[in-house]
Amino acid sequence: MKILVQKFGGTSVATLECMRKVREKVADGLKRADKVVAVLSARAGDTNNLLDLAGQWSKDPDRAECDVLVSTGEQVSASLFAMLLKDGGIKARSLLGWQIPLITDAGFGRARVRSIDSDALRGFLEEYDVLVVAGFQGCTEDKRITTLGRGGSDTSAVALAAVLGSVECEIYTDVDGVYTTDPNICSSARKMDRIAYNEMLEMASMGAKVLHIRSVEFAQKYKVPVRVRSTFNDDPGTLVTQEDSSMEALLVSGIAYDRDQARVTLHGVPDVPGVAAAVFGPLSEKGVLVDMIVQNTSLDGLTDITFTISRKDLKSTLGIMAETASNIGAAEVVHDVNVAKVSAIGVGMRNHSGVAARAFAALTQEGINILMISTSEIKIAILIQEKYVELAVRILHDTFGLDWDVV
Ligand code: ADP
Ligand code: ASP
Ligand code: MG
Known about the structure:
binds aspartic acid; single chain; 2 domains; six-stranded antiparallel sheet; VC0802-like; binds magnesium ion; alpha/beta; binds adenosine-5'-diphosphate; Carbamate kinase; 35% helix; 27% strand
């Protein structure tokens, strides 16, 4: 049985008219495979509205109940789409996470997929030609509803594609594919035909929300080819796949940005062993993900420690740091939310030096101050003031030749 997994994002299912387009894509999928598993996001805006509602009802919404609430967004779109398929004469039914079941850990709001009952899915596929699966959601072993984190329907789709042996996982969205940078902020961004898993992973983790990070991790681990394409045209899109030697020809293949950054600094920290552990231990216990970290050289036995986190974790981080600062005898804790991160990514960087210097020079020329830097084998990430983020993206895009057509 040839099974194709297709995922449709929030803007693709926002209205009845859009869902009719989605139905065409699914009907086309049925011509290319025996069965289709269509994974749907909530309609655009629904997840945000539900989260707002939680915020109105509670100062600090219970995470587990929040998941019960926000998962209904996908329940709405999946049921509506199943109706539409049936009206179009296609044998279909909707499936919620718990009905499969798609089992996750108990990390409410950012749960990780543990297992998927693929036999049950194959059983359903005996009876139906299309299964409409509510993305973004699962349940724990003890039947509590969970969600996989913002953008998590991509991960639902790739995980399903992996367990069902789908030839390709198609991710349908509102852009034609993966671009050299976000086409909505840089008009000279160009669509890539292919991108390597590890580059896509860095792009996603540096803020390119076109794919959820964990979906790329899954795709790479289980070797699922992922094709990002548009619901609204027939462009073949971008294939996310294994790296090959031709991909190294480009020094930098993409620029990403992330506005969801906050910077926290502890001033006057005693420069003695155990201090970093005392700062970052409590944060990791509370599940706060720390991104960049810089510790200054010590002056008179005192130093500064600066790090970045997601803005949603700022309140809890400042609470934890107030306590930590008094425990370790730090002078003060300051923070800044008007910061953002821009990154240049490319497997070609591995074998070349000087990429970072070129990026710094280009930003300096435009008077953009560099606040923090972090690098990996195939990435340079730079923290700047948020007001410069779009300018910085365009400058880096141009600096690394991504504005020009490759001949
Ligand atoms: P969906 O609701 O379909 O999951 P998302 O909004 O999550 O869609 O992701 C698509 C968006 O990702 C695009 O509209 C675009 O603004 C943004 N994006 C960011 N970086 C890139 C990139 N490098 N290539 C394509 N799109 C990108
Ligand atoms: N509806 C969820 C969100 O808005 C999941 C998704 O769209 O992938 O984050
Ligand atoms: Mg998305």
